[in-house]
Amino acid sequence: MNRFILLFFLLLSTSVQAQNLQALFSYKTYYSPENGPYLETYLSVNARSVVFEKNKAGKLQGAIEVSFVYSDASGIKHSDKYNLLSPEVSDTSQIQFSFLDQQRVQLPNGTYKMELTITDKNVPEKPYRISQNFKLEYYNNILAVSDIQLIDSYTKTVEPSIISKSGFDLVPFVDNFYPQSMNSIRFYAEIYNTDRVLGESSYLINYYIESAESKRVIENLKGFSRQNAGKVNVVLAEIPITDLPSGNYNLVIEARNRENELLAQNTAFFQRSNAARISESDDYRQRDITNTFASYITSTDSLTDYINSMYPISGQLEMMFLNNQLKLADLKLMQQFFYDFWVKRNPINPEKAWQDYRAEVIKVNQEFGNQVRKGYATERGRVYLKYGPPNTISRSYNEPSAYPYEVWHYYKLDNQSNRKFVFYNPDLITNDFVLLHSDAQGEPYNNQWQMMLYKRDSPSRSFDQEQRNVDSFGNKAGDNFANPR
Fold it and tell me: Confidence class of residue 379 from pLDDT cuts 50, 70 and 90?
């Protein structure tokens, strides 16, 4: 099961009313014992980015045309097109809100392609399209945790509506970024078929926040509940994050039996910005490194190189040390940081964690290094060290009009599925391929990647052109990305 969040910046008309349409989109998967699996989609449109026109009532209103198409290998399984209308306003200069859309689509288990098209109806421009593969995989005899929906607020249901689930109205939080002004993370999930697996036994539901990089559980940011087994059990909870430092995190929900054995779990990735807690980056200064493997690394140059190689898997606070303090640090401080880094990732055997990672760094340096930089400092090296080796690589170094490029495909990437990276070499001299585009969370998303890739001897025809004709002679990049081999 997978989820993603995309931020669209649509380059629209150059007229006076032209604006950058901004929208956030995400989806979650669920299961109904009566009707089977279904998908929920959430779309949040920034009203300030929409062109408002007078409606029949004389009020100002925005209108977004939304189109969904769901297909599998046999063809289209479901489609829908509708207008999403903003609230009416009298003065657009005071707009400070977003308007939401939520949909549910019932589909059988399987692998699907979802195509979303959004257009500002008051701006005469071509629509913006994205596509995403997803999988529905729920069964009536397997214990499973649904996707985790981040929610802005919730109230008890009075009149059931599209946002109602399990007796509550859930207002979705479509983003996964929590600024300092937000003091808690609210969430909803469902656990299925515990009655079939556990009988009448009760079981434990744990939920907690962990570091996305080290998987270290953040103390005091967790909770639990004990529930009786049933067809569907609901998790609706809130965790305060006032003291959570800036960084990348996973929200984890897991089901465990009476023997504390893990039965099922699911995660949701989120980011936190909290300048008030940035000082926690100095925790490493308290580490005692006496007789540790770090204390035996006495070459400043070697230790600097080792620490720099850790950048691809560093958290936000650790990156601050690398970016701002490494050049000024003395040997002991560097040893403390180095040891602390690996203890957080493997408290039992931090030295083994480092040696395993070092072996991968050596591979990366040999494969991706060039005259200018070491392999771990290249884009391909960073992705390899952060996510591991890709499942497939499609290489094309002599395609007409195209710069040399590679398409990396990951079947599973943390809590995401079917993610791809496009690297290209625009200088044609070094082995330093640059990351041009990716559909993975937190990575550069570039609508115009095909146009840029084929600029080697074909200048762009227009600023907002998103891709070349995929049927043109020799153009394989679009197919390599859509159908990696």
Answer: very high
Question: How many CA atoms lie within 13 Å of 75's alpha carbon, on the beta-carbon side?
Answer: 0
Six token digits for residue 297: 């690394």
Cβ proximity of 437 and 422 under 8 Å: yes
Instruction: Using alpha carbons, select from 333, 334, 337 the residue that is nearest to residue 304.
Output: 334
Is the model's pTM score more than 0.85? no
Classify strands 262-272 and 177-178 as parallel, antiparallel or unpaired.
parallel
Look at residue 414 in the predicted model and tell me its pLDDT: 75
Topology adopted by domain 140-273: Immunoglobulin-like (2.60.40)
Rounded CA gap, 390 and 384, in Å? 7
Q: Which residue is listed with tokens 């009760």? A: 202
Record the tokens describing residue 135, joined without a space.
């999988």
User: Which DSSP category does 404 fall into?
Assistant: P
Right CATH for 1-138 from 3.30.420.40, 1.50.10.20, 3.30.360.10, 2.60.40.2550: 2.60.40.2550
Rounded distance, CA 466 to CA 66, Å?
A: 20
Tell me the C-alpha distance between 325 and 319, whole Å: 10
DSSP assignments along 141-167, one per residue = TS-EE-PPEEEEEEEE-SS--TTEETT
Alpha carbons 146 and 264: distance in angstroms, whole number: 10
- Tens of pLDDT, residue by residue over 103-124, are 999 999 999 999 999 999 998 7
268 strand-pairing partners? 251
Question: How long, in residues, is the chain?
Answer: 485
State whether residue 428 is helix, strand or coil: coil
